[in-house]
Amino acid sequence: MRLCGQQAVWNYEEENGILTIQGVGAMEDYTDPEQVPWNTFIQKIKTVVIRDGITTVGDYAFAGGSNQEVSLPGSVEIVGVFSFKGCTVLKEIVIPEGVRVLASKAFQFCSALRKVYLPSTLIDVDMRAFGKCESLEEVFYQGSEEQWEQIMI
What we know:
Blueprint: E1 2-3, E2 8-13, E3 18-23, E4 25-26, E5 47-50, E6 54-57, E7 69-71, E8 78-79, E9 92-94, E10 101-102, E11 115-118, E12 124-125, E13 138-141, H1 145-150
Parallel strand pairs: 3-5, 4-6, 5-7, 6-8, 8-10, 9-11, 10-12, 11-13
Antiparallel strand pairs: 1-2, 2-3
């Protein structure tokens, strides 16, 4: 296990392509995909699993990945800037209850993304969080129409 935040660690299982992030608190924010510690095998990652206890998905953390699945826990409150930008194989994402913010361009250029499930806890969807997701067909919101109208978009 190697660090990817003050109290967050990561592990990559090469045999099945699973990257697991676990610990407590925020992941590290990166300013470029090349800085991400798992960047050398980002194209081999099939599944990203973030365990309960992690509160923020770091900026650029999985940008450009070939992950087909992402598992986010309810402890995540913020999905960072460009976190999943360019994950061109990702077809569906379930943002769990507990997430409050989808930062700028978090899922931009996820060209295969077709379905998005948004929680009622969401208060801010920053600019172009799903920009250039040309296959996006369905967005499901778990809250009420009144709650939806309160979200800053």
